[in-house]
Amino acid sequence: MIRQLYGVDDGALEEVFKRRAGISTAMESARRVAEDVRAGGDAAVRKYTKEFDGVELRGLEVTEDEMYNAVELIDYETIGHLETAIANIEAFHSLQRPAGDMWLTEISPGIRLGQKFTPLQRVGAYIPGGTASYPSTALMLIVPAKVAGVPEVIACTPPRKDGTVHPLTLAALDMAGADRVFKVGGVQAIAAMAYGTQSIPRVEKIVGPGNVYVTAAKIYVRDTVEIDMPAGPSEIVVIADDTANPSYIAADMIAQAEHDVNAMSILLTPSELLAEAVDIEIEKQKETASRRHIIEKAAMGIYVVDDIEVAAGVCDRIAPEHVEVMVRDPMLVLNRLHNAGTIYLGEYAPVAAGDYASGANHVLPTGGYARVFSGMNTMQFIKTTSVQAIEREGLESIKDTIIALASIEGLDAHARSVSKRFEQ
């Protein structure tokens, strides 16, 4: 598993980038299903739920009774843990919300500019299912939307084989404030939220992670509806030096690998001794992992680099979902990183902390999209509209510039719309 890496070498990282080719290969299948749902509505949703999930649904929506019964099944201790997570997520995301609904400031005499903040009116949240239940993702999507002021948040999540949704996921959705929940997953859920069906309303934006088909579907429907980011199989890059604990690193790499067979876990270190120790620890810890059958198929790699600066450069090239920094001076590395979904500093900052309870969001860009996309945050649910309040004095101070530039561009009517206001 241990390899030498000299500089930012794409050839040596070929396996990493090959793992990310899945979205493009899934696009044609996603397109076919999405178009069927666009044309067929609920009937197509039911057809693909039966085909892909092996479930024949009567009603697509979770009823009030189903929601109530699910919450009743959850013990008080678990409810308390959910409440702790919600409080931290709410606190962190409230800090991201603009202080007011708008602001205006005087740029120059007679010219006041500002922004108006408007929450989206209806958002669709995709909560993954399949190989595991993810109540934490329900919190990470619904709470920020409600903090932002979105009046209607609908959620789609895959049903279990008996046609129900896991009670813990339903409890999390209910506690977080989801307005409606549908027992639909996969591409058909994304398409239903994008185009609307007889049962599932059309939304303005779709948020949430999923497998390569869900991610491909989100990219495909983007001509109709906005999306948060391409968020597919999980990724972690650990940057560590000889001060790091190999047992912690191995545990964190395995934790991400257990998500999905397409997950990716990488260690970048200048220490050959650490690399060898982590390699041994991974093999040892895998022995007792309950999801070893998935971990064994995930991409795991240990790369020995020249120094920590090279490690930071390689990490930036990968642009991973998660970065853990376990070195003597974490802040120095932080300042050198530009492309990451989220960054954890220090040996007591595992990804699992952000996954569940620290309050930061775990819905993050994957597949290298951290180069251009931000992770889930409150502003994902808020539109900004510029506001311009201009008086005669203000327009007069810039009229010559406006007229000159409009004339240069050959847009005489633009120039005249200003000069008209100053004709005697």
UniProtKB/TrEMBL annotation:
It catalyses: L-histidinol + 2 NAD(+) + H2O = L-histidine + 2 NADH + 3 H(+). Binds 1 zinc ion per subunit. Pathway: Amino-acid biosynthesis; L-histidine biosynthesis; L-histidine from 5-phospho-alpha-D-ribose 1-diphosphate: step 9/9. Keywords: Amino-acid biosynthesis, Histidine biosynthesis, Metal-binding, NAD, Oxidoreductase, Zinc. One of its GO terms (molecular function) is zinc ion binding. NAD(+) binds at Y126, Q188, N211. It comes from the Archaea. Its cofactor is Zn(2+). The gene is hisD. This is Histidinol dehydrogenase. Belongs to the histidinol dehydrogenase family. Catalyzes the sequential NAD-dependent oxidations of L-histidinol to L-histidinaldehyde and then to L-histidine. Pfam families: Histidinol_dh. Zn(2+) binds at Q256, H259, D355, H414. One of its GO terms (cellular component) is cytoplasm. The active site is at E321, H322. SUPFAM superfamilies: ALDH-like. Its EC number is 1.1.1.23. It is an enzyme of class 1 (oxidoreductase). InterPro entries: Ald_DH/histidinol_DH, Histidinol_DH_CS, Histidinol_DH_monofunct, Hstdl_DH. Substrate binds at S234, Q256, H259, H322, D355, E409, H414.
